[in-house]
Structure formats: C-alpha cells, structure tokens
Amino acid sequence: MNAVLIIDKPPGLTSHDVVNRVRRILQEKSVGHLGTLDPLATGVLPLVIGNLTRLAQFYTSSEKTYEGAIRFGFATDTYDSDGEPTSPAHPVTLFLDQIRELAGGFRGVIEQTPPPFSAKKVQGVPAYKLARKHVEVALKPVQVEIKEFEISQVANDRATFRARVASGTYMRSVAHDMGKLMGCGAHLESLRRTAVGEFTLADAHTLESLDADFKGGRTQELFIHPRKILPQFPCVTANEETAALIRTGRPVNLPELSQARLVKVFAGQRELIAIATRVAGTLFHAKLVLAGEVATQMASGSRK
C-alpha cells in the first residue's frame, strides 16, 4: 500500500500513538508522519504509507496553520495546559487592542527558545527526557518565522488566535513569551492544526472513521489523490516505455516539462512512480523511485 492519509489527531495521543493505531487498522508496517503534534494538540497529522514514506524529505520545511487559545495569569513547565504551574495564578483582565499589539511583535522572523519539554536534542538526548527527570535543560534560541499571528478575541484571561508559521515554530513558546512580556505568565491552553503544506482539515479522517471505512472496503476516498501531493511539482503521465525506464532508475526524456527542475511521474492517473529531476535540456533522472525494481530493492534493503 502506497498512499498519503490525513488524520484529525485527537487530544491525549502522541503522533507516534496515532501512527501505531493506523498501522494496526491498515495492517501496514510502513507508516510515518509528517510533523509532530503534541499530545495536547489536535488536527491535521499527515501520514505517509508504504514507499511514499520516502516523500517525507520534501515536507521538512512545510508551513503550518494553527488555531488556539492562550491563557494568561500563570506559566507552566511545559508551556501548555498539560504542565505544572510554575507560579501562583494571578487574576488578569485582557483588552483586545492590548493583546493584538503584543502579538504584533511576534510576527516576522524572530529568535525563539524551544520549550524544555520538546524533541530538541541536548547532547543527543531529547530535551523532554531530561526535563522529565528534572534535569535543567538549556536550549539555545533558534530563528523561526511567524507569517501571520492574529488575535481574534479575548475573554477574561484567555485570548484566541490564528497563526501561520514556518516549520520549527513552537506556539507554546509564543504563549510563554507573551506571558513574560505581560509580567503575569501565560501558557498555551489549546491548539488545533488546521493545515500542513497542501493538506487541510477538509482532507482529514478521524481514527474511528478510518477504521470503519477500511473495514467496509471504502478505501478509495480515504487517501489523498496522488496528483494533489507536492503541488509545486508538475505532473507528467509516462507511456509504458518511459515508465519501464523510470521504474529501473534509468534517465528518460520528458520534452513537455523541459523547464521544470523536479516533476512527479505517473503511470496512469493514480500511480506515482517517481520524483524526477532535470539533468539537462529534456533529460530527467529519477531522484526518487517509488514503484518498480529500484523502489523494491531499496525497501528490502531498509528492512535488513
């Protein structure tokens, strides 16, 4: 099974928990995810299945869109509502203009320190493992980009927001830093991811509906149509001769796409067989073979 599946992750599960459940439902060992969601968070979790797990390399810098709520008045050790308070709660009354002005300072390219409970590694060890053992974690600030950050409303001590960010941005750190600037502390109370790259909630399935549809044989509508994947790359449908060459990793001529650098090569309408890169002129070579002899050899080698 080679496919891309979007899950609407429920709260309380890690991304790896979701991967394990999907493996059991689909009876497929080769399943991976494109971008971790914290247990607290819900929403778009793209999964790649079978040989399409190798597409993950093209999604390392995917843009993400979120909706959520920030609670002011106290901070937590995890920077979200799953953590323990690090100070007593203070009564806070928020004003919309005040919080919108504060949010404006986080737009653009900024320096951000990741949360101590994160997957960032400290001397090869994930920071969250050290934090759980109460080992002090000193993470270095990193450069991130917040392309949009809009506060939609405030009510008492909570502010709801929508954000569009570059890969690597922690909304937990944004909430924590806003609380420090306000002098009262804050944490991320809720977070829902509404988009990752080209994938949105409209594409997503719950784990329950996935299980029911798969058992009922309704598989065609579960998966993203392969031609919608990586829309920045043009599509070409190879004839039998060209497809046979691509499947064995040999270079081919694709004159109709002579100006493209990377292209998606299909056999028929739905079978994505390769991502090819232009060598020169109309000559393309498979950067990634996803169906055929080369793909089978690489998949077998990865299981040794």
Task: Explain how this protein is built.
The chain has helices at 15-26, 96-104, 127-132, 171-182, 207-215, 240-247, 293-302, and strands at residues 3-9, 31-33, 42-49, 64-72, 108-112, 121-122, 125-126, 142-155, 158-165, 186-196, 199-200, 235-237, 252-253, 262-267, 271-280, 283-289. The protein is an alpha+beta fold and 304 residues long. It folds into 3 domains: 3-62 and 198-224, Pseudouridine synthase (2-Layer Sandwich); 64-196, Pseudouridine synthase (2-Layer Sandwich); 227-302, Roll (Archaeosine Trna-guanine Transglycosylase, Chain: A, domain 4). Helix 1 (15-26) runs parallel beside helix 5 (207-215). The model has no long low-confidence stretch (mean pLDDT 88).
